[in-house]
Amino acid sequence: MVLEAVACKHCGQAQQVKRYGTTRAGTQRYRCFDCGRTFVKIYTHKARDPLVKAQITQLGLNGSGVRDTARVLGINRNTVSSHFKKK
Ligand SMILES: [Zn+2]
């Protein structure tokens, strides 16, 4: 059995990340016991990835519009719009 180190997508820490069941689609889910948050390695929906969420915020702060951001990141403009409504 080979154990691979998985880094947390939220805090970057790889020591206390453990397998945490599966998603409804059957993808392996992980939980970071340092920050307590869960994540999957490859997201089915791009906009769910914390790295893409951070990019949405960065592009918005740098003056990109909703449609610009959606085009650059390859996600739906309604997703970008709802991201800003939540913030
Ligand atoms: Zn973490």
Automatic annotation (TrEMBL):
One Pfam family from the record: HTH_Tnp_IS1
InterPro entries: InsA_HTH_dom (IPR024431), IS1_transposase_InsA (IPR051252)
Domain Insertion element IS1 protein InsA helix-turn-helix, residue spans: 43-85
GO-annotated biological processes: DNA transposition
Domain of life: Bacteria
Name by which UniProt lists this protein: IS1 family transposase
Organism: Spirosoma sordidisoli
Organismal lineage: Bacteria, Pseudomonadati, Bacteroidota, Cytophagia, Cytophagales
